C-alpha cells in the first residue's frame, strides 16, 4: 500500500521567532531556512512581511535563495497585508499566501469588534485578493477551537469557493484536548463541501502541553498538513515540536496504518533533525532542556545500570528510536593542530557548510588557534567555530585585549582594550565577579549600557579543554538582542558574547529598525 504524505509546514521563522526574546537577524533567518530545506520540510513560513521592513526583507530573501520547499508569507485579512506577503514571496518558485482572521465569539467581539457576517465577508475577500497573487492560498480561522462549529463550517465552505487550497485549524490559545480536536477535524472533514479537494492543516499551541498530541489527533482524523516549529518554539509555551511530530509518525507507522486508511510518511530526512535543532537553539539563544523529547541531551542517554545492560545486550529493550536516526553519529571525527587546510575544508563540506574561499580561510585560521589550545577538535566544535567566525553583523566594537584578575579575598577587576569607530579605547573596572567586571569595563569603553537579561555558558564538547560558548541576552527600549562568543577561556567567551550583542543592538539602531507587529495565530 502506498503511504500517504503528511505535509510538514515549518513556522519556526514566523511563530517560533515570536517567542519572547527570540530575535533573529535576516542573515540568521536565511541560514535556518537553508537548513530547513536540507531537512526536507515541505513549506517554510518565512515571516509576516507587513509587520516590519526586516520581516519583509527576510521573507523576500528566503523566497529568492531557498529552493525546494514552498515559501509562505503570513497576512491578516487585509489588502495591505496580502499585498506585502504577495510581493515578498514573489521570487519563490513555489509560493503561498497564508491569510487569517479570528472566528471565535470572544475574538470577534473584543478584538475585531465585528459580527460574524462581516468576518465571513472579510475572509472571502482576503482569499480572493491572495488568489490574485498566487494559486496556493491557505486560510486560518484564528482561535478555531473556541469558535462555533456551525460558523466554522460556513466560513470554510465560503473560502474554499473563493479559492483557498489549505484550511488550517488553529488552536491559537492551546485550549483543546486531543479527543476534542480530533472530533473537530473529523466533523469538518465530513460536513464542509469540497473539503476533500483541499488539505486540512493543524496548528496547535502547547499551553497545556498538548500541542503534539493534538496535532497527531488531527492527523488521525484526516489532517494532512501539520504546522510546527523546531524545538517547539513559539508564542508563550510554544508550538508543536517538529521533531516530535516527525519521529512519532516514523516510529508509530504501525498505529497510523492500523487506524487510518493508509500508512503515513513525511519527506523529512530525520538524520538532519539533531543538527537543525542545534542550529535553531544556538541562533535563537533558547537552550534545549536536557529531558526534551528527541533532541534533549539526555534523550538517548542510558544511565541507569539495568538499562545500559539491557541496551548493550539488545538495543530495542529500552530504545524505540536509534540516535543515528536523528543524526547523532556514534563516532565523531576528530581534527587537531596537524590537520591541513585540505582536511579541514573536506570536513566542513561533509558537515554541510557551504563557505566562500574567504570565509573558509577565516574559519581555518580560527580553527588553528583553537586546535593549539585544545588537542582534539570535534564536529560540534567546528560548527560553532564557523558560526562564530562567519558573522554577518558589523563589528562596530571589537575586543582587542582583555585582562581579568580575581581570586579569593581580592576584588575582581578587568581591563579591556576595544577598537571603536573613533579609534582604540581602554577601560578598567571592578565587579562582583570576573564576568561582571569585564562587562563593566566593556560598558565603559563602548559607552553602551543595555540591560543584561540573561547569561549562560555551555561546554560545546566534554573534557577539561572544552570550547565554551557563552550566550547573552540584552534589552534596550523593549527589544532583545542575543550575542554569542566562543573561546577555550570562559571569561573571554563571555566578554565576546557581550560585545556581539552590543554590536547587534547598535547596528539595528543604526538601521532604524522598529519593533514588529505580532500575529497571534
Ligand atoms: Zn501560532
Work out the helicity level: 40-55%
The strand line-up of the biggest sheet is 2-3-4-5-6-7-8-9
The assembly state of the depicted protein chains is: single chain
- Backbone shape: globular
Provide an overview of this structure.
46% of the residues are buried. α1 runs parallel beside α2 and α16 packs parallel to α17. This protein has an 8-stranded parallel β-barrel, surrounded by 8 helices. A 3-stranded antiparallel beta sheet has the order 13-14-15. It has a 3-stranded antiparallel beta sheet with strand order 16-17-18. It is an alpha/beta fold and 521 residues long. Bound molecules: zinc ion. The site of zinc ion has 7 residues, from loops.
